[in-house]
Amino acid sequence: MVNRRIDEPTGTETVGHEWDGIEELNTPLPRWWLYTFYACIVFSAVYVVLYPAWPLIDKATAGTLGWSSRGDLAKEMSAANMARQGVFQQIAATDIEKLPGSPDLMQAAISGGAAAFKVNCVQCHGAGAAGYQEFGYPNLNDDDWIWGGTLTDIEYTLQHGIRWDAAEQTRVNYMPAFEGVFDKAQVSAVTGHVLSLSGKAQPNPAGAQLFSENCAACHGPAGGGSPELGAPALNDAIWLYGGTAAAVTKQILAPRHGVMPAWSGRLDPVTIKMLAAYVHSRGGGQKAAPAQIETDVAQTPDKAKTDG
Ligand code: HEC
Ligand code: HEC
Question: Which residues contact 235 (CB under 8 A, 6 or more apart)?
């Protein structure tokens, strides 16, 4: 039996039911709430038609717009790829000595090189490129280059490796072993002379004589080294194998002949170029000689240097 009436204390209509004298007031939902609710229903109906919505067994209803989050991602990725491809192509097309002339490209090459370095080079040269002297892996951060420090030199070193037999044009030079050639006194004299070159020992005339006869051809008369021959400078404080008398003697008796793999064929030319740019940027790399590059060196001839 429906029996609506106005509830006196509240002034609100009842819904008309009564249980044991208990009645329920009829309080309608606020208008604003109701209309928002209807709007939501309309919105979701439109949404279901336009966008992927109902889950099916292996996919969802597609929606008439054909939108998908995967499609969105693919679009963004391909845009990013296009941008990267563009930079790659530009780096590929730019002569390595001209890279520093376009700072943006050089910067892109350096960061690309840094990433490739983490994958291919850290196991020998260390995460900070500081090398490991105990194994003869050189520090690439110093301004001392065994095989030359121009971008072109470094790129060549990377392409062909060092004493890497499998690469025809690899950088190669073998310091002879003086074990059995020199007697004990001679070994200690020439060691003394080598150390004197960097001010670590008194001049040693006998050693100097032996040095000029046996060592100067590769290391230079004053021990300044020779990048063409991969003979390190002996007159600076930077050592491949260590600057103690013991380390120098060891090298004289039984040279190590360090080996670095060639990277051509394992890494693409653009990656090698970027690695060269990165290494060059770490080590205070050298500028190419004026003969090799006329353009920007012409304005700054004082900065061009061929050896260091
Ligand atoms: C298997 C160990 C090894 C790996 C890997 C390696 N190197 Fe080397 N690298 C060496 C050794 C050893 C030398 C020194 C060879 C010598 O005695 O002349 C060297 C020398 C160099 C030089 C010449 C330095 C100079 O002063 O002339 C450069 C540049 C260089 N490495 C860069 C790299 C880069 C870049 C990578 C990664 C793509 C790399 N290396 C990976 C072992 C390695
Ligand atoms: C045929 C060229 C050649 C001759 C001759 C030569 N060297 Fe070397 N020397 C090298 C090369 C190349 C290296 C690079 C090290 C390696 O990987 O073996 C080297 C490295 C060294 C090193 C290590 C430098 C460092 O930074 O740790 C010392 C020391 C050295 N030579 C001393 C001598 C002395 C002393 C003589 C003469 C008795 C001599 N060398 C003769 C080519 C030569």
Answer: 197, 198, 222, 223, 224, 225
Which domains does the chain carry?
Answer: 1-68 (no CATH), 83-167+267-303 (1.10.760.10), 184-253 (1.10.760.10)
Residue nearest to atom 31 of ligand 1 (CA): 260
Tell me if the pTM is above 0.70: yes
| Dihedral of alpha carbons 77, 82, 87, 89, sign | positive
CB-defined site of ligand 2, < 6 Å: 173, 175-176, 178, 190, 194, 214-215, 217-219, 229-232, 234, 239-241, 248, 251-252, 255-258
Q: Which pLDDT score, from 0 to 100, does residue 285 have?
A: 67
Question: DSSP character for 142?
Answer: S
Distance, CA of 107 to CA of 119 (rounded, Å): 19
Contact 69, 85 (CB under 8 A): no
Rounded alpha-carbon distances, angstroms, from residue 300 to 239, 264, 293, 295, 304: 31, 33, 12, 10, 7
Interval between CA 169 and ligand 2 midpoint (Å): 21
Over the stretch 165-222, which tens digit does the pLDDT of each residue have?
Answer: 999 999 999 999 999 999 999 999 999 999 999 999 999 999 999 999 999 999 999 9
What is the C-alpha to C-alpha distance for residues 4 and 121, in angstroms, rounded to an integer? 88
- Measured CA to CA, the distance from residue 231 to residue 239 in angstroms comes to 12
Residues in contact with ligand 1 by the CB-under-6-Å rule are: 117, 120-121, 123-125, 136-138, 140, 145-147, 154, 157-158, 162, 230, 240, 258-261, 263, 275, 279
Percent of the chain with pLDDT over 70: 92
What's the token pair of residue 32? Answer: 């604003």
